[in-house]
Each structure stands twice: as structure tokens, then as C-alpha cells.
Specification:
Layout lengths: L1 H20 L6 H9 L7
């Protein structure tokens, strides 16, 4: 059971490092502002 927890923690750490390197957290302020814009209405 401990081995499973360690493996799961390593997988989660690897996924987090991958997301950092792929630029998932580059512009959190801009993403938060884009949520408030209503661009789905037809003109």
C-alpha cells in the first residue's frame, strides 16, 4: 500500500512538472479576465 502511494505521488509530481514546462500557468490573470468576456453571442 505504501508503494502504491509513493508511485501515485510520483505520477502526480511528474504531471505537475509537465504542466509547468508546457506553459499551463503562464498567464493566470489574462485567463481570469477572459472568463468574464462574453464572446459567444452572435453579432
Amino acid at each position: 500500500m505504501i508503494l502504491g502511494a509513493v508511485v501515485l505521488a510520483l505520477v502526480a509530481l511528474a504531471a505537475f512538472i509537465w504542466s509547468l514546462r508546457s506553459g499551463q500557468y503562464d498567464d493566470p490573470t489574462g485567463a481570469a479576465a477572459r472568463v468574464l468576456l462574453d464572446n459567444d453571442r452572435p453579432e
